[in-house]
Amino acid sequence: MKEFVVCxxxxxxIKRERIIKETDVSKEQVIQEIVKKIEHRKYLLAKxxxxxxxxxxxxxxxxxVHDYDEKNVNLINS
Length: 78
Known about the structure:
The protein is an alpha+beta fold. It contains one helix and five strands, in the order ββαβββ. It has a single domain, classed as SH3 type barrels, CATH 2.30.30. It has a three-stranded antiparallel sheet with strand order 2-1-5, covered by helices on one side. A two-stranded antiparallel sheet has the order 3-4. Strand 3 and strand 4 (51-56) form a beta hairpin.
């Protein structure tokens, strides 16, 4: 299994979630999956270290996907 951290930059906040995918999945595939969800839904349900939260898709300005590295990733919501 491969872990990614997805960062959603909103108008006034940044939300992060860690997701687990199969080993052969790339960052680009993860981004495409998220973009398809955003196109078809009004809200996304993201799971962070502090629980689940709902993200209004119309507030998302940028999506970043990074390989999970425990030493370099801070999942605390700002």
